[in-house]
Structure formats: C-alpha cells, structure tokens
Write a structure and sequence with these properties.
It contains 8 helices and 10 strands. The strands form 3 sheets. The protein has a 6-stranded parallel β-sheet with strand order 3-2-1-4-7-8, sandwiched between helices. It has a two-stranded antiparallel ribbon with strand order 5-6. A two-stranded parallel ribbon has the order 9-10. Helix 1 packs across helix 8, helix 3 runs parallel beside helix 4 and helix 4 packs parallel to helix 5. The relative contact order is 0.14. It binds NADP nicotinamide-adenine-dinucleotide phosphate. The site of NADP nicotinamide-adenine-dinucleotide phosphate (NAP) has 28 residues, from helix 1, helix 4 and helix 6.
C-alpha cells in the first residue's frame, strides 16, 4: 500500500515508539491520528506534526475501555472518511516475579498481585483486542480493507519477571495470526512487530547503568534498538503487500 494520503491510527502515540511511528508516517504524507490517554501529550505531538507541514488529529482514548475504543475508530474514520492502517501500540509494564522468595529463609516474601497482572492484560491484550476489532469494523464497512499492525515484544517467548507482559504479548501474536485468516476476505492484512530492547522511557526510566550494560552484552548487535527502527519496520509492513499473518522480530537478534 502506498502511504501518501492514507489515514493511519497509532495508539499510544504521545511518546516512545508510537510517536516515532506517527511522525514517520506523517513525514511520508499520511493523515495521522495521535491517540493516547493524556490530552496535553497528544496535543504536543499533533502540533509537532503540523509544524512540519503534516496532517494530524488528536483523540484521547484509553484502549482498555470499550466505549473509548469504539469512539476512537469512528472519529478516526469520520475525519477523512477512511481508515487504512491501525497500529495497536499502546502498552504498559508492571514487572514482577510470579513468587518472590527470601534468599536466606527460602520462604515466600511476595507474589505478583492480581492488580499487577490485570492492569497489563487490560491494556496490552484487551486493548489490542478492542482496537483491532474496531479497526476491522471500519475497514470492513468502508469496503476498502486496510492493514492492522499489533505491537508484540520478544517477551512473547517468555521473559522471567514478566508473567503478565509475556502472556499478553504472546496473546497478541495469536490474535495477529488468526485475524490474518478471519479478515482475509475483506482485503485486510494483519502483521505484528515484536521489538527487542528499544531505547524509550518505558525501558530507560528505571534502568540502572550496570543493568543497561548487561542487556547490551546480550544483544548480538551490541546496542538497543531505536524507535525509528521500529517505525521503519511498520513502514515496510504497510508498503509490502506480501506481508500478512506473521510477526517480524525487530530485536538486534536478542534471544529470550
Ligand atoms: P511508552 O513510551 O511508555 O509508550 C506507550 C504509550 O502508551 C504511552 O504514551 C502511554 O501513556 C500510552 N498508554 C498507556 N496506557 C494506555 C491506554 N490504556 N490507552 C492508550 N494509551 C496508553 O512505551 P514504548 O516503549 O514506546 O512502547 C510502545 C509499545 O512497544 C508497547 O506496546 C510496548 O509493550 C512495546 N514494546 C516496547 C519495547 C521497548 O523496548 N521499548 C520492547 C518491546 C515492545 P503514558 O506514558 O501516559 O502511560
């Protein structure tokens, strides 16, 4: 699909990878919908795109809430009477061990709370389900189809300390593959991206320098990825009509 003049919705696009993807598509001439949970942060990205001569609309929506997501995709469609690409990127982390064991006594001293589990499932899995469903509603109704790009993670393979996150990201891969089949008759392609370690606030904000060095040593290319490299991967999926039903690991080769 050619990107110019297409309507692209990117959830969680007020920061990090989502912002990088939104900026990249805007620079290619797309009409971009910036959607996230904080109005001020959304407005800043919309202004940045407009200042560069691009086309952007801001919509506040919590992807874990059904009415928000229905409204988001209806408003996104109504803006230009089209919806061509939906990137399901909004996500959160609430890391913790399944059970925390005291080193000396070998007794349990903590466990992953149900709130901690549910918060991540609500945004990273239910949010992808709801926004993928609502994108499909608009794409089928338009009769023109489109492309859905869910954002998974290499944690889909099972990363210690991330029961909630890994389960959600593996679920996103299952949805990607089954949606590619379910939606194929409506000219909808579905392909996911599983980033590795990408230098955004999500990973950098609580990272100690020694932990950062350790992670770098485990990445075959010797460095973290950049949000721009994930944006490039999204652009490749949109432009290449052969790509559907797959997950592209953009990770510098890290194996979890
Ligand atoms: P980020 O900078 O924290 O961006 C995520 C955005 O989603 C934030 O703006 C966040 O808003 C927003 N958000 C949170 N909850 C939301 C909700 N309920 N509805 C709508 N928006 C919501 O993180 P990132 O690193 O760019 O991550 C983007 C995606 O890539 C996520 O799905 C993440 O799991 C995935 N990923 C990231 C990495 C990495 O290394 N960075 C690796 C693999 C996969 P607030 O900031 O206000 O919470």
């Amino acid at each position: 699909m050619e990107i110019k003049n297409k309507v692209v919705v990117v959830t969680g696009s007020a920061s990090g990878i989502g912002k990088a993807m939104a900026m990249d598509f805007a620079k290619q001439g797309a009409h971009v919908v910036i959607t996230d949970i904080k109005q001020e942060a959304i407005d800043a990205v919309v202004t940045e795109i407009k200042n560069l001569g691009g086309s952007a609309l801001g919509i506040v929506a919590d992807v874990s809430k059904e009415p928000d997501t229905e409204k988001l995709f209806q408003e996104a469609f109504d803006w230009q009477n089209a919806l061509d690409v939906a990137i399901l990127n909004a996500g959160i982390l609430r890391d913790g061990l399944l059970v925390k064991v005291d080193k000396e006594t070998k007794k349990i001293k903590g466990k992953m709370g149900i709130d901690q589990w549910q918060a991540v499932i609500n945004v990273n899995l239910t949010g992808v389900f709801l926004s993928g469903r609502e994108a499909a509603v608009q794409m089928v109704n338009s009769g023109k189809g489109g492309i859905i790009i869910p954002i998974s993670s290499v944690a889909m393979h099972g990363n210690p300390g991330q029961s909630n996150y890994s389960a959600a990201k593996a679920g996103v891969v299952a949805l990607t593959k089954l949606w590619a089949h379910e939606l194929k008759n409506y000219k909808i392609r579905v392909a996911a991206i599983a980033p590795g370690f990408i230098a955004t606030d999500m990973v950098m904000k609580d990272m100690k320098p020694e932990a950062l060095e350790k992670w770098k040593s485990l990445i075959p290319i010797g460095r973290l990825g950049t949000p721009g490299e994930i944006a490039h991967t999204a652009r490749f999926i949109v432009e290449n009509d052969l790509i559907t039903g797959v997950v592209i690991e953009a990770s510098g080769g890290i194996k979890i």
